[in-house]
Amino acid sequence: MSTTTLPPLSPAATNAGAAFDQIATEYDRVFTDSLIGRAQRDAVWKVLIRTFKANDNILELNCGTGEDAIFLGGKGISVFACDASQQMISIAEQRLCDQLPSFPVVFCHLPTERIKELNPETMFDGAFSNFSGLNCIDDLCAVAASLTNLVKDGGHLFFCFSNRFCLIEIVHYLMRGQWRKAKRRWNGQAIATIGGLQLPVYYPSVRQIRRYFAPHFKLRSYLGVGVVIPPSYCEEWAVRHRNAFRVLSLIEKIIAELPVFRSSGDHIVLCFKKVSQ
Predict the structure, then answer these.
(1) Which tens digits make up the pLDDT trace of 231-258?
(2) For residues 228 and 246, is the Cβ–Cβ distance under 8 A?
(3) Which domains does the chain have, with CATH numbers?
(4) DSSP 193
(5) DSSP code, position 84
(6) Rounded to whole angstroms, how far apart are CA atoms 41 and 132?
């Protein structure tokens, strides 16, 4: 770590860590281990292991309770995993210690806004952030600038954002006459209440994200997650209708990478490659 003195974090960044501290102990029960959470994560992992290979050294942003880092560690991929929530990191470290202490995974309490402080001995082969962590960041250009200095040429970025236009969410709320909720993401920003704290959440378009990470990173592909699988707040429905949910999961595997559909899911997964300048 560099010892360079940096300006204090913004209130939004500080609040994000505090908010996720409040929900850390319940996060795996509510999302990670839910039917919807598991289906969405499996879809992400399918692409993740096509992007990173054994012996890669990867930086993870917004690692939460360590589910993805430990999964990659099991594939022989080294992961330096960071999160703004100290409680999330504590749970991740305990999980690693209890289950798989030999895995090449290190957890660090470090907000994404601070990754420019990192001073690794060698540059990373890539970086990733799963399930909307970057939607809590108001300055993605700063993130891109930091990653430019941390990821080697030819390395990959793998990001899973909450999408601006989620078709199934729009239908869900319109059927209930909740117009304001149906369009809550459309203007690119909303306020979410997490752990009793209100946080700004940003919904950049694919075009905006591509622009933020140019010119050093080029978008190579993207796909939808949660195109027909409902968002996580529909877990009760998924549990009651398991057969229907399985059918939706099969449909999703077929259409998630098709034009139009890939832009209309609950999440969107984008894969970038760093190009030499």
Answers:
(1) 999 999 999 999 999 999 999 999 999 9
(2) no
(3) 11-274 (3.40.50.150)
(4) E
(5) S
(6) 12
